[in-house]
Amino acid sequence: DLEKAKKTLRNSLRRLQKAEDLFRNGVSLMKSGQYDASIKHFMDAIATTPDGPLSREGGQYTIWLSQALAAKGERAKALLTIRTLRTHEDRDIQRVASGVEYIYSAPELEVGAEYFQWIEIEKLEEIKEGPKQRMYAKMEKMPEKYSLEWYMLQKPTKKQIANGQDAQLLVAGTVMILTALVAYGSYFPATASGG
User: Fold this and answer.
1) Residue among 69, 55, 72, 57 at smallest CA distance from 101
2) Contact (Cβ atoms closer than 8 angstroms) between residue 46 and residue 58
3) Which whole number is the average pLDDT over 124-129?
4) Which uninterrupted H or E stretch holds 150?
5) Residue 67 near residue 61 (C-beta atoms within 8 A)
6) Taking a C-beta distance cutoff of 8 angstroms, is the pair 101, 82 a contact?
7) Alpha helices, DSSP H only, in 32-129?
8) Is the pLDDT of residue 166 over 80?
9) Which residues contact 64 (CB under 8 A, 6 or more apart)?
10) pLDDT(148) > 60
11) Whole-model pTM?
C-alpha cells in the first residue's frame, strides 16, 4: 500500500512538472505572438495537470488560456473560458478570474484617427533646416552625475550663496582687524611692544 502511494505521488509530480513545462512554453509562445501554439500548450498543460482545471495550477493555466484566446481575437471564447473559474475552489483563482472577466466584459474602446498625432518623417529634414533649427541642434553629453564637472555646472543654492557671502564678510572683517592692529602698533609703538 505504501509503495502504491509512492508510485502515485511520483506520477503526480511527473505530471505536474510536464504541465509546468508546457505552461512555460505556452507563456513564451504567447509573448512572441504565436497565439495558436500557446493555446495548444495551455490546453495540454491543463489536461496534464492532476485534477485538471480544478487544481490551483489548472486554474492558473486556464486564466492564461483565456488571455491567449483574447489576444488571438476570440473574445467570446476567452470570456466563456474565464467564466468557468467563477466557482473554482481556490479563492485566489476566483479573484483573478473575476478581474480578468471584468476586463473582457468592458466595452471595446473605439478611438478615431482624430485622436492620434501623426508625424511625417519626410518633413523632419525640412524642419531641421528651417526656423526651428536650434530646437533640433545636437545636445552635448552631460558629465557623469556627481563628478567634478557635474558639480561645476550646478547652480548654487540660496543657502550656498549665503554661506559664500558669510565667508566673504568673515575674510573682510579679519583683514580690517589685522589692518587696525598694524596701524595701532605703528602709532603707539611703546604700548604695542609692551614697554
Assistant:
1) 69
2) yes
3) 68
4) helix 148-153
5) no
6) yes
7) 35-48, 56-72, 75-83, 91-105, 121-129
8) no
9) 23, 26, 27, 30, 42
10) yes
11) 0.56
